[in-house]
Amino acid sequence: xxxxxxxxxxxxxxxxxxxxxxxxxxxxxxxxxxxxxxxxxxxxxxxxxxxxxxxxxxxxxxxxxxxxxxxxxxxxxxxxxxxxxxxxxxxxxxxxxxxxxxxxxxxxxxxxxxxxxxxxxxxxxxxxxxxxxxxxxxxxxxxxxxxxxx
Length: 150
What we know:
Layout: H1 2-25, H2 30-50, H3 55-87, E1 91-94, E2 100-106, E3 111-114, E4 117-128, E5 131-143
Antiparallel strand pairs: 1-2, 2-4, 3-4, 4-5
Helix pairs in contact: 2-3
């Protein structure tokens, strides 16, 4: 009987977590999903390799943590590139312990892809423990919406 209560509580807990995760994911963009997926894969593999007694447990814990870290890095990238686009100045973020460092810097002036879309290229660099781990150039754009109304 005690096992039935534990099982029902576990099922209810898992359902609540899934519902909350689904609601939270509605606010995410494509880059968040990509970052979360990459983090989950790396974290899952690392967790499985590190937990010698129970690789499944390590993989699940690692995937969960990797998902959160991957989505967080994607969010920082989105915010930093937008801020650099809007201000025309470099943007920097650092972790509290100083081990992680993000920098976004505009590398071009504004240009127009079409009459309604204004763009700018932004260079992003991410360092971890003083070592450059990622360097990309993004095209960040804003556009005006024009609709014919009656």
